[in-house]
């Protein structure tokens, strides 16, 4: 990727993040129906046109962009990599999908609060999770074969999502503010792997 393309991509990611954070803060302060897209554009310091170039509507802006997996990561996983160990490779896949390095505690607290208190947002999060579950299920079956079982793959994905919730709760309840989400998630992941191997 050229330097100018890289700069453009960083700007796009930054603008997307800013819009979502502003949408979540407005939702927290006023409720989901308590602000307009014009007010969101003003809060995010973008034009209305730019706002709609990034998100088709308010719900999408509050949820933020869906998780994405780079094509190379998907192909490597399908081919049995990068480590050749299924569980270790799932861990790599999750790390590539979830930007837990850019975690901000205050932003996470706002997001968690609005998703817990707004049924419409909670339903939208659930629908998005269902779509991600289907993607991961298909990837697992592509790699491991249909004999692995769709039900088994879905159970695994739901357990991994629960680990994320456990890690997030650990980090948000850490009063020192020093616990990192990626470390907490992978610690939970490794703990579960150890428990299941007993």
TrEMBL record:
Residues 13-73 form the HTH tetR-type domain. InterPro entries: Homeodomain-like_sf, HTH-type_TetR-like_transc_reg, HTH_TetR. This is AcrR family transcriptional regulator. The keyword DNA-binding applies. GO terms for molecular function: DNA-binding transcription factor activity; transcription cis-regulatory region binding. The lineage of its organism: Bacteria, Bacillati, Actinomycetota, Actinomycetes, Propionibacteriales. Residues 36-55 bind DNA. It comes from the Bacteria. It comes from Nocardioides daedukensis.
């Amino acid at each position: 990727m050229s330097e100018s393309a890289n700069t453009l991509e960083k700007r796009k990611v930054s603008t997307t993040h800013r819009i979502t954070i502003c949408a979540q803060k407005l939702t927290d302060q006023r409720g989901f129906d308590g602000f307009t897209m014009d007010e969101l554009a003003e809060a995010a310091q973008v034009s209305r046109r730019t706002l709609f170039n990034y998100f088709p509507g308010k719900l999408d802006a509050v949820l933020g962009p869906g998780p994405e997996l780079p094509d190379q990561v998907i192909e490597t996983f399908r081919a049995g990599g990068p480590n050749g160990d299924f569980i270790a490779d799932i861990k790599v896949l999750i790390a590539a999908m979830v930007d837990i390095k850019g975690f901000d505690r205050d932003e996470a607290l706002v997001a968690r609060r609005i998703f817990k208190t707004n049924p419409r947002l909670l339903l939208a999060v659930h629908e998005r999770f269902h779509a991600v579950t289907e993607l991961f299920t298909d990837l697992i079956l592509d790699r491991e074969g249909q004999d692995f079982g769709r039900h088994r793959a879905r159970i695994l994905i739901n357990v991994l999502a629960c680990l994320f919730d456990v890690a997030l709760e650990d980090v948000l309840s850490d009063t020192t503010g020093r616990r990192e989400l990626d470390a907490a998630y992978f610690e939970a992941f490794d703990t579960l792997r150890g428990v299941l191997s007993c």
